[in-house]
Amino acid sequence: MTQNPTATPTGDSGPASSGMGPAAARSLSGLTWWSVGLIALGFAPLLLEFFTNIWRLPHYQFFPGALAAAGVLAWSRLKDVTRPLSPGKPWVTLPLLLFSFALLALAVLLGSPWLATISAVICLIGMIWWSGGWALLKQMIPALILILIIIPPPFGLDSILTLFLRRVAITASSRVLDLVHVVHCVSGNVIELPEHRLLVEEACSGINSVLFISAFTLFYLLWRRRSFWCYLICLPAALGFVVMGNVARITLGAWAQFHMGMDLLTGWKHETIGLILIAFYVGLVMSLEHLLSGTPKSGPSFEDTSSNAIQPPASDPARRISPVWGWAVGILFGIMGLTGAARHALHLDSPHYLSGKSALHEGATFDLPERIGPWRRLTSGEPVLKKIETTGLMSMIWPFVSPSGAVAVIAFDYPIWGYHDVTACYIGNGWDITKRERIARDGKTPPWLEMEMRKDMEGHGSLWVGTVNERGQWMEVAQVKRSLLDRIRTLGPLGNSGETSYRVQLLITSPSPLSADDRESATRLFQEARALLVHQLFGQLNQQKKPAP
Amino acid sequence: MSSIARLQDGIYEWFRTWPQRQPWKDIPVLLALLLGIAFAFVVLFWDPTSVRARYVGYANNALAQNNFPTVLVASERLLSLDSAWRNQALFGVALAHQGLGDDAKAADTMRQVAPPNRPVFATAHMYLAKTMLQRVGAAPELLPLIKAHLNQVLALEPESVEANEMLGSLYASQKQWEFAYKYYTAIIKERPEAMLLLARIAKERGNANAAETWTRDAQIHFQHAVETPGSDNPKNRISYIESLMMSNDFEKAKAVLDAGRNLSGNDTYKTGYPCGFCRSGQEACGKWI
User: What does the DSSP 8-state code read for residue B246?
Assistant: First the structure.
């Protein structure tokens, strides 16, 4: 098709079906490709950041496919819309676009790519409505649903789902392993076998597969134009397939390790089994859809355009909207885009803003004294240095002992991508969190996170955590002291993820809970150690910023 | 048409047209459904009681075979299965760490189940007492600790024969006759041979009457045991012989020994008799050796 440069952005003008010329179709909504381009430009900087960020999350790496699928669905549905498109009522369009613009402004102000993405979806809905009213929006709903699935939910709900799925998978696997007489023990996300420890990673928990299979199931059912109740069966069933598949994978891995000494849960074997399972899930979803294919429709479906579909009113050139409106909206969003781009450029001055890598040079050193208050270091000299290769995380460890014999382990971890809540890690290692509190005592002392935990083997655990980013902002802000803007910024999981952070942890494990005196003493040790390490950190960061003599 | 009627029609229609809709394509999901039912059955009807019993067996068998990695895993699993088994499981964990050479962890865990100042788990207290007793020759300073653990065993199980006997033996070795007497007295029902020890202790304390009484009681008890028809029990016979020797009845003692040799020829009778025990001099004993 030869694209008319003045055609509407929502598809071909369809002169055959409408009986109206392209010029008429163009002018009805007042939207042109240029104005749409300007609006898109408004979102571009933060959307770019958003997509860069979610590419880092393995369970969202299917997003290009989901976007392509959304495009395909939109394109296929577009053909069903009667032409010419009749613009939606302005009293719906205007609030949608205003709300989207306000959200985008807030996103630019707070630097929140997640908020900008939500704003983009609302804007997209507004523009669809503007172009074609309910008749067009209705046909675009499937594509919009697919787009929504790639936006991580707020409040860390995807992390909660990950933890839940991992727990379900491990618990169920443990029961199946009992059935096949494999001696094992479960500790958090680790299945311990005699002489082997199987770490059940996020990948094994099924979160990657769940999102992908959910997206695929949605796409397939939408593509096949199935009825609502088919979704009600297929989506939970797809989740069930994934849980079963992952239980099978974990069980098979543990069984093979126990009986044959074969490791199926790491490396290429793990990846291969994962791909095979994905193929199985896809096949099962298609098979289930086929099984249900002979059933009647008992409710409306997304594709239903026949009897109950709202027909667009006859096109009336008198309802034509001036292109000036399109340009005005485009320019407003475009200005916001330029602001976002400027902000982005300013942050890019910090060379590792998006990379999550530390601005520290390779050989950065940190040290703690032999004594901090009554606490004495158990080892002298260089700290124990551990590098976790998979994430590139460096961890330095200093054990201290108190006069009462309590051993406190201080760890300094860096670089961390954004704020990483250690709660999930400790839960993953089998700890039950009994108390968790963000503390900010006064304006002078930086805030910290304090947790009390229990574990069968280790007894009681007490943890102090403080995280600072390269701009010197402490990230464990006490809940009560968080501003509304701060709460909004951290709504999305990727709200502040572009910043590299550094974390100080202090962990004490003991058979019984710490006494109030020991706890206070440990708090002071944590504060002093944290102050020393952060002082060294910023000393070295500032040293690097100075030009070489 | 009502929705129920539509649903009924739909179901009827589905079954009617199913053979025409390439049913083989439904096989994967039907198999998955069966698998899901089996899987749900396994997960929902999982029985912790039988699993716990099995893990006790795994841990004990592995311990018998010195398979410490398995002991560790099985004990940790027991720990997570049932808090009632916590001490037993922790004891297994401690033994496993010790077997694996991780003494620090073993000591940490053992402290949880057998602290010297608090009764927690009798088996662990007893294990520590026995282990330390083997080293007490080289480290006599362990003696108070051993006594402390044995006392914790008695606090948990006042009738423990082993703890009473060990404490009696420890106090006897330190010539603390009063305490030794107390602990041996507590076990004469289960260990009648303790009567002989009590007779000796009474003699050491200068209580001739009590010594005579204990010797006589021992003689009566073991004579009855030896003369009861049935297979020969060398342990009872030797105890009987000892009691006879303590009352200086060497002729009868020799007769009883000879009878035992004739009856079963058990190796115990061939190895002879501890000469120093009797006071008749080498002549009488020498005949036997």
Answer: H
Indicate if A167 and A65 belong to the same structural domain: no
**Residues A342, A400 share a domain:** no
Helix, strand, coil percentages (3-state) for chain B, rounded to 5, are 80, 0, 20
Non-local (6+) Cβ contacts of B187 within 8 A are B161, B164, B165, B168, B194
**Are A123 and A179 members of one domain?**
no
**Which residues lie across from A451 on neighbouring strands?**
A436, A463
pLDDT tens, position by position, B172-188 = 888 888 888 899 988 88
Taking an 8 Å cut-off on Cβ atoms, the answer to whether B70 and A187 are in contact is no
Residue A504 in domain: yes
Residues 6+ apart with CB under 8 A from A51: A63
* ipTM of the shown complex: 0.71
Closest-CA residue of chain B to A197: B73
In angstroms, the separation between the Cα of residue B11 and the nearest Cα of chain A is 7
A273 and A323 within one domain: no
Pairing relationship of beta strands A190-193 and A185-187 according to DSSP bridges: antiparallel
Q: Do residues A143 and A235 both lie within one domain?
A: no
**A169 plus A272 within the same structural domain:** yes
Cβ-contact A44, A335 below 8 angstroms? no
Q: How many structural domains comprise chain A? A: 3
Q: What three-state secondary structure class fits A313?
A: coil
Whether residue A2 lies inside any domain: the answer is no
Residue B17 and residue A294: Cβ atoms within 8 Å?
yes
Q: Which of B77, B110, B120 would best serve as a mutation to test chain A binding (most A beta carbons within 10 A)?
A: B77
Does the pTM surpass 0.90? The reply is no
Q: How far apart are CA A404 and CA A518, in angstroms?
A: 8
Residue A279's alpha-carbon distances to A215, A240, A548, B36, B65, in angstroms, are 14, 15, 56, 18, 45
How far is the alpha carbon of A231 from chain B, nearest alpha carbon, in Å?
16
DSSP reduced 3-state for A129: helix
Question: How far apart are the CA of A481 and the nearest CA of chain B, in angstroms?
Answer: 39
| Rounded distance between C-alpha atoms, residue A73 and residue B74, angstroms | 54
Domain map (residue ranges) of chain B = 36-111, 114-174, 219-289
Residue A301 lies in a domain: no
Give the residue numbers spanning the domain of A199.
156-294
Q: Tell me the chain B residues in contact with residue A193 when contact means C-beta distances shorter than 8 Å.
A: 73
Residue A8 counted as domain residue: no
pLDDT per position as a tens digit, A98-142: 898 888 888 888 778 888 899 999 999 988 888 888 888 888 888
All residues of chain A having their beta carbon less than 8 Å from the beta carbon of residue B72 are 194
**Phi/psi at A289 (5° precision):** -60, -40
Scanning every residue of chain B, which has its alpha carbon at the shortest distance from the alpha carbon of A287? B26
A520 and A388 share one domain: yes
Say if the Cβ atoms of A194 and B67 lie within 8 Å: yes
* CB-closest option in A291, A294, A298 to B13: A294
Same domain, A136 and A269: no
Task: Write out residues in chain A with pLDDT < 70, as ranges.
Answer: 1-31, 201-207, 294-323, 344-359, 362, 380-393, 441-443, 456-458, 477-499, 544-549
